[in-house]
Automatic annotation (TrEMBL):
Pfam families: ABC_tran (PF00005)
Name of the protein in its database record: Biotin transport system ATP-binding protein
CDD domains cross-referenced by the UniProt entry: ABC_cobalt_CbiO_domain1
Keyword Transport: yes
UniProt record similarity statement: Belongs to the ABC transporter superfamily.
Coiled coil: none
Keyword Cell division part of the UniProt annotation: no
Amino acid sequence: MMRDMGHGTTDPPTGAITLHRASYGVQGRPILQDITLSLTERRIGILGRNGSGKTTLLRLMAGLVAPTAGTVTVEGMDPAADRRGMLRALGILFQNPDHQIIFPTVIEELSFGLRQQGHSAAAAAAAAQAVLAAHGRAHWAPAPVASLSQGQRQLVCLLAVLAMRPRTILLDEPFSGLDLPMQIRLTRLLDGLPQRLMTITHDPRVVAGHDRVIWLDEGRLRADGPAAEVAAAYQAEMERLGALDADADIPG
Ligand SMILES: Nc1ncnc2c1ncn2[C@@H]1O[C@H](COP(=O)(O)OP(=O)(O)OP(=O)(O)O)[C@@H](O)[C@H]1O
């Protein structure tokens, strides 16, 4: 399997994320079916169309929902059961920052996860301030979150995740709603992170150069392999579908 040696300067993340015959359904409707994966790479892409089950896969790996069949483990833990262990194992950047942010100011938002990890209020505030400073945003600390742009709120969410120092970060469509300079800056920031990153996207350009790309299609694994191969096959299929009559590919 292709490796990106550019990430080789820091310690690799420990422990695999595994799914064994994992399925998830709602009221008898299958959303993910029979997914078996052992994920150990540092840069992993989850590629798929709208509604293919990408966010549901993320929710399973994060323990936000339990599989209706099969098993999911993160570094050997059951993510739905071991909430405390998961706080250091895995962080999530959701697609919409406004679904993630719950506090009025930036410093409160960044401190929250650290408090959950058991740090005192003073230690959490100090660590949050240090993360802001490390990313050139020390002056944001007292700012009302509502005064920031969507791109800036997205960065607040990412910095809140980084403050907790998880070993893996799940990113759900991290570039949606960002203009091009913001996308370029976020890409640079993400590229420099030592963590394992798992990036969910419908855009094959986002997963270029990733160590491994998984293509989800209608809740099933359609392909799994090096980025160039999987992205090329996905692109060809998207172009084939695009050439069909409008919506002929959408069930119902
Ligand atoms: N709790 C739920 N109840 C009912 N249907 C659900 C539930 N969760 C997901 N679904 C359905 O399962 C399918 C897959 O959803 P999911 O959000 O995982 O897809 P996705 O690939 O992330 O899509 P998008 O790119 O549009 O965000 C969708 O049709 C969605 O409506």
